[in-house]
Specification:
Helix content of chain A: 55-70%
Structural class of chain A: mainly alpha
Subcellular location (chains A, B): Cytoplasm
Protein name (chains A, B): HTH-type transcriptional regulator CueR
Organism (chains A, B): Ferrimonas pelagia
Largest interface: A-B, 56 and 56 residues
Main location (chains A, B): cytoplasm
Oligomer: homodimer
Shape of chain A: elongated
Largest sheet of chain A: 2 strands, antiparallel
CATH topology of the largest domain in chain A: Multidrug-efflux Transporter Regulator, Chain: A, Domain 2
Keywords (chains A, B): Activator, Coiled coil, Copper, Cytoplasm, DNA-binding, Metal-binding, Transcription, Transcription regulation
DNA sequence: GATAAAGGTTCTAGCTACTGGAAGGTCAAG
DNA sequence: CTTGACCTTCCAGTAGCTAGAACCTTTATC
């Protein structure tokens, strides 16, 4: 299987597949006589696993850990679950951060008339003097 | 005012302040005879504005636009508001994305026993064969 | 056989927003 | 005169790719 077929079957670009290999996430495939990478089914499965893990927020390093656990017959599901719980906590804090931004920004936009006048509560809130300086 | 004082007053690191200048966000300060940057109050205000805009999610490029609007007496508040509304939409879509991850990940963790057994629904969902392969 | 298109390979560089470090000049105190 | 803190510059690295250059291989067509 050449790289473009793997790409089509996984929806991951050839560049990206090579990148994953170079990053050490993917076990390097055998090479054909012409130097082309010769992939097998296992590679497709690994790439799909990376893709799904990425979709739910895991970093490449974390994907690497997950793949290692996946390959290890002596793993415990507790290890995997811990990774997932850690990630869940990260996602929650990221959501909280974005919600805070949203709240602030939403309040500001509602105060802004959005007309032709230069007077703008958004800029004022960001630190601009409301109209004139007192210094 | 030397860079470290500006840093203390804004809570932005000297490295970061130089970086903002190099990126073109900050108007370059005059230089003292020894080559040191000599900041004035305006710079502190600009840096604080960048800091607050960054906190509510604006990118550096967007901060640059906001600063430009802030300096322009002929601006309209509508322009500023549009920037804010765009950013709000971006934040909303990012939150939605994270919520989707959260939902999936949360469901998976709840299915995982988290014990010593290697059998793990999380890995299964990520693409691993449930127990054995059919190939 | 010539040639062109469509694959493959490697390498380098760019993106965001910084941070850290090296190598060196300057300033204030002892 | 030395020490330490400050300042300067530039280079490199972080995450996760993507784009491009420069080159080789395969396949099809003329």
């Amino acid at each position: 299987m050449n790289i473009s077929e793997v790409s089509q079957r996984t929806g991951v670009s050839p560049k990206n597949i090579r990148f994953y290999e170079q990053r050490g996430l993917l076990t390097p495939p055998e090479r054909a006589d012409n130097g082309y990478r010769a992939y097998v089914e296992t590679h497709v499965a690994e790439i799909l696993m990376i893709k799904r893990a990425r979709l739910i927020g895991f970093s490449l390093d974390e994907c690497q850990s997950l793949l290692a656990l996946s390959r290890d017959p002596h793993r415990s599901s507790a290890d995997v679950k811990q990774h997932a719980l850690d990630k869940l906590a990260q996602i929650d804090s990221k959501i909280a951060e974005l919600e805070a931004m949203r709240t602030t920004l939403s309040a500001l936009t509602q105060q802004c008339p959005g007309d032709a006048s230069p007077q703008c509560p958004i800029l004022t809130a960001l630190g601009e003097s409301p109209c004139n300086k007192h210094g």
